[in-house]
């Protein structure tokens, strides 16, 4: 019996959290219905807003100093510094969203996390 891959490794590689080989996404951020290799069911996959929150915090921590360096350190015109910073933020957000979403899904998969239902509270 093979062991499941690390959720971090599977997420960063955008692979199935069960087998580590099949792709987890059908599109840019749309989960597949199931893994093409091990047939794991992804229909209940939902990473929620967590990936976006983490990405926004990380990108903000990168581009805020970037803007200050471009304006104060390199003395670029405001419009150019702002344009470079906005483009950096867009590229970073688009690049980081898929792996963060896949990592959070893989962590949910490993820990068998699911949405709490009314029956769970009673």
Would you write up a description of this structure?
This protein is mostly helical and 122 residues long. It has one domain. It is 55% helix and 0% strand. The chain has helices spanning 7-12, 50-73, 78-110, 118-121. The longest helix has 33 residues, at 78-110. The chain is elongated. The two termini are 37 Å apart.
Features:
single chain; 122 residues
Q: Would you summarize the structure shown here?
A:
The chain is mainly alpha-helical and 122 residues long.
Q: Can you count the beta strands? A: 0
User: Distance N terminus to C terminus?
Assistant: 37 Å
Helix/strand structural class: mainly alpha
Residue ranges: pLDDT <50 for 5 or more in a row? none
Number of helices: 4
Percentage of residues in DSSP E strands:
under 5%
The value of Rg in angstroms is 19 Å
Estimated helix fraction: 40-55%
Largest sheet: none
Secondary-structure blueprint of this entry?
Elements: H1 7-12, H2 50-73, H3 78-110, H4 118-121
Helix pairs in contact: 2-3
